[in-house]
Every structure is written in C-alpha cells, then in structure tokens.
Amino acid sequence: MTFSDASLTALRVFREVAERGTLTAAAMALGYTQSAVSRQIASLERAAGTPLLERHHDGVRLTPAGRIVARRASAVIDQIDTTARELAGIPEERATVRLGWFASAGAALVPDALVRLRRTHPGITVVGREGGTPTLVRALRAGTIDLALVASPPPYRPLDAETPALQEQILTDRSLRIAVPADHPLARGEHIDIADLRGQSWIAGTGDDRSLGVWPGLDERPVIAHTVRDWLAKLNLVAAGCGITTIPASLAPACPPGVRVLPVRGGPTETRRLLLARLPGPLPDPVARVAEALRAAAIESARDAND
What we know:
The protein has helices spanning 8-20, 23-30, 34-48, 64-87, 109-120, 133-142, 231-239, 285-306; strands at 53-56, 59-62, 95-101, 124-130, 147-152, 167-181, 192-193, 201-204, 223-227, 245-248, 259-262, 264-265, 271-278. By secondary structure, the protein is an alpha/beta fold. The longest helix has 24 residues, at 64-87. The model has no long low-confidence stretch (mean pLDDT 86).
C-alpha cells in the first residue's frame, strides 16, 4: 500500500484530527465514532509508512511527517471541493481568505477591517471563525485557516513549540481595563486602585480563555461569580451588577449601558499584544491585503482607545 492509495475520507478525517487536537473532538465534529476515526488514521499511517500522530494523555500532536500530510491534505481537499462546486454550477469566488480570531476581536476589530477591505478590495471574500489561541494555532498547522488573529499576554512566548515556527506579526499592544457596573463603588472615580480589587466578584472566561476576565497578578484567589465564554454576555452581567471583569481598552465603546470602563492604578501595566500569525512561506496577495486591513484597523482602534 502506497500513499497514493489514501482515501479522500481518510484525508478529511486526518485534517479534522489535526485541527481539533483529539480523536474524540474530531469524531464529534464529523459525526463518526471514535473507532471509525482511529481506523481512518491507521489506514493513512499505513499508506504513509510512518506515524503521523503522537499520542499524548491530553490529545495528539503531529509528527514531522504528519505536518507534511496535513498541509498537502488541506490543499487536495480544497481543490476537490472547488471542483465539486464548479461541476454543480456554483461560481468560485475570485479570492477567498480564511481568517480565525479570538472572541472579543469579533466585536469591533474584525468588522472594521472587513469594512476597509470591501472598500479597497471588493473581490476578496473572508471566511471567518472564532476560537481560542490553541484552537486557532492547530487550525493554522492543519491548513484550514490562512491567518490567525490572537491576543498574547506577557512574556510573549511563541504561540507553540512546533516546527517550522509560525510567523507572527505584531499589530499593536492593547492596555487592559476593568469593566464595572455604573452604580458600583469602584465606578465613582476616574481610575481603580489595584488594592481595591481585593474581595471583588469576577466574571471569568471558560475553556481556553478561563483566565480572561480576572485581573492578572491578584494577590489572592479570585472569587469567580460566573464563567462565561461570550464577551458580550460578560458585559451584560456586569451591567446587571453580577460582578466585574477585564476588557481591552479598545472595547470600551462597545459596552452596553450601565457599564463603566476604568484603568487600574498601581502594580505593573497590563497589556495584551495583538498578533497576526501564519505559516511561513510566500504570502499570497489576497492574504496580504487582509493582513494589512487588520493592521490598519488595529492601529486605529488603539489610537481611539488612547484619545
């Protein structure tokens, strides 16, 4: 059996496993049983003549051969899907760029960038998806997205330890603020002293983003009132007086009524670096245009937040 004998189904399953990080998650996404996914991976590894995945207690990692197969599989699947659309009479878009972003970027930054892009390059279609950093990095490695917009906290380590290293473009640094109910005692001034954060009830994130929402470096175990993935839900809970949470300064204009956004005084300055990550290699022009629109939107957002 040679790799030319690999089935399209096996390639689709492998791409899903590479992106999801576990056989269980891939099986759920595809509607397969886990044993069916395992059989497809085993058949692909037999065809390749080498292991494509490393099994760990918390999921799987691509081997060097697996990374090659993931890239090639994604290209093959995309070409076959394009052919199917053409045969069905569905016109192909002139250029499509696949973008992934972290949750709060969908509130303002990504829409602003897409408005810019439509004005300057209306022939480019952006297909977007939201996810946590680990999920987006896996999607880049699997070849299912072209660009990943992520937020990185200090000390700004590489997004993963795989090779080849991802190319990371710094868009801007965003300061962190506290969102509090407008009638909260902390909302009375123009800033919040870091000492006054002790004993507060926090609205934190979930999953990949569980630490988001709580001020970094608190010298106590935080009291978590609610864990919420959606940033707008967090802010509505703040407006309802259910706790306080952290947000980037650039999101202040998008807050619902009943919320004040204030800087914290004392302690180190807390920032989050906005990065645009991609696989190394030549950058296609449509992808470069999307990257430039995101950079311009990020710079303008940071400038508005500091005004």
